[in-house]
Write a structure and sequence with these properties.
63% of the residues lie in helices and 0% in strands. It is mainly α.
Length: 110
């Protein structure tokens, strides 16, 4: 029986497909995977970060090709009136949270 902790969620599956198609240079499938990822809620920045980090594993050329493909896709979607989420806003740390820098300075490193 399958352990639910071992099943990838949709976002993880999308990133997996993007990684696979980037590594083998399958641009048509990559474009489909990028489109699906955006439609499934990944942000533009999350996808760019994933493509940038792949450079260390699949090489510079495939990543540049993938980034250029992604930019062209974003331009196409903008021209079609589709506004993708660029990033998720992060809420600021409340002022009453006193575990900030003062706390960090008290934590020993050794």
């Amino acid at each position: 029986h399958e352990n639910s902790a071992q099943i990838l969620n949709t976002r993880q599956q999308d990133l997996d497909k993007i990684s696979a198609f980037t590594s083998v240079g399958n641009i048509p499938k990559l474009k489909q995977a990028l489109t699906a990822a955006l439609e499934n809620g990944l942000t533009v920045n999350e996808i760019k970060e994933a493509l940038t980090h792949l450079y260390a594993y699949v090489g510079f050329s495939p990543c540049i090709l993938a980034l250029n493909t992604f930019k062209a896709l974003i331009d196409e979607r903008e021209a079609a009136g589709i506004k993708d989420v660029v990033r998720i806003e992060i809420a600021p740390i409340p002022q009453e949270d006193n575990r900030g820098w003062a706390y960090f300075k008290r934590v020993p490193f050794c």
